[in-house]
Every structure is written in structure tokens, then in C-alpha cells.
Write a structure and sequence with these properties.
The protein is mostly helical. The protein is built from nine helices and two strands, in the order ααβααβααααα. The protein has a two-stranded antiparallel ribbon. Helix 8 runs antiparallel to helix 9 (about 240-265). The radius of gyration is 19 Å and the shape is flat. The two termini are about 30 Å apart.
Length: about 270
Amino acid sequence: MSHTLISYVAILFYLICGSLIALRLFRRDQPALPGHPSILMVGFAGLILHTWLIYDAIFSQPGLNLAFFNALALAAWTVVALLLVSSLTKPVENLGILILPVAALTLFLEARYPSQGFMRESTGWPIKIHVLLSMLAYSLLTLASVQAILLAVQDHHLHSRQPAGFLRALPPLQTMESLLFEMIGVGFVLLTLALASGFAFLEDMFAQHLVHKTVLSTLGWLVFGTLLLGRLRYGWRGRTAIIWTLSGFVILVLAYFGSKAVLELILQR
């Protein structure tokens, strides 16, 4: 099977899985749909194909091909893997309603616009560890941002007193909030390690075209750190936590992919 064909099959699995989650969330008096394990099996099938695609696009040649769309697909793989594995023990499956369609889109873009952007085979292990930590931190904080969106919708329904199947399918508000801060806490630790490892080999951020990424990553770290401190000392929750989470996430998106998009897609470097 060709790389493109496998991409389309993986996309199909992700979209089916996301659709089943959406149907379970929004159904009212509809007949029972496939249960939790059945839905996860569809998602894992897509993840297995996604794994092969990532290997073929990024790791199959000497060095690492981390061109823009490959990096997007790798980040999506990490997010989906964390989501599906976490869903085995925690009530986070519903995050797939947003994450899986986005993952499908990254696979489509990777297949449609193949490109080259190699990290040399001789690149030292500290830089590779930095890249890994950055991906894990970004992915976990992506899950937190989707959790914040669902929390905002849930909070809106509760305040407007509009009971729906959507609410019945979600865990209680307090559980959703606790999961949000668990994700942010672990993501913040990983982001701290990623920044520390990045500064270790940073020589000249201007010559290395890293000013944008370094400044925004540090700003994102400050936003999430402030949120965790506010939660600890002042009990921040609800809409305050949602706004800070989404603000930090937008900053990290600009840091991780904004500069890469400008350099590769616009400046062709």
C-alpha cells in the first residue's frame, strides 16, 4: 500500500472514531451506540497506521525529516496517543471530538504536501531529547486546551440551565476541572525541562533564527506557571482557568509552529 493510501485509511478511522464520540455526546433518545471499548479500538486502528506513516515520513531516512507538515503530523500522533492511552483509565475520551478531526487534517496535509527538512544524522542526543520533551509538553498542553474548551461548554450549559445528552455524557464539572489541572501540571513540568534543555545548546538565538520561538515559549511557560500558582494560592477555577489555559496554548502554537511556518513556507529556508 502506498503512503497516500494508508494516510486516507488512517484519516477514515480517525473521522469514524470522532463521529462515534460526537454521537454519544449529543444523542438524546437514540438507540445505544457502540460502547467505550469499541470506539477506542477504531481510534487505535488509526493510531497504528499513523505510527507507520510517521516512521515512513520522518525516521525512514538518515537523520530526521521534521519539515513543517511532518512536524504537525508528529505532534498530532503524540496527542492522539496520549488521549487514547489515557482514555483506558480516565474519562478523557470525549476530547477526541476535537482532537481526532484535527489529527486527520494533519495526515491529509502531510500526504498532500510532502517536503524535506532534515535534522542531520550527526545531531547530538541533547537536541533530540529537547525535541522529544517539546513535543510531549506541547501535546499534553494541547489536550489541556481541548479539555478547557469542553469545560467552557459544560459550564455554559450549566449556567444557562440547558440539560442535554452532551452534559450527561461528560464527567462532573469538578472532575473535568481536576483533570484539566493534572494535564497542565504535568505539561508544565515537561515544558520546563524542554526550555532548560533548549537553553543548554542555545548559542546565538538571532543567528539560529530562534528569537521568536524562545521568547514565545518562555511567555507560554510564564502563563501556565502563573495559572498553576493562581490555582494553588487563590483557588483559580472556572472561566479564569479556561482563559489562561487557552491563552497559554495559543502562545505555544505560535512558538512551536509559527516560526517554523514562516521560515519554511514563506521564507523557504
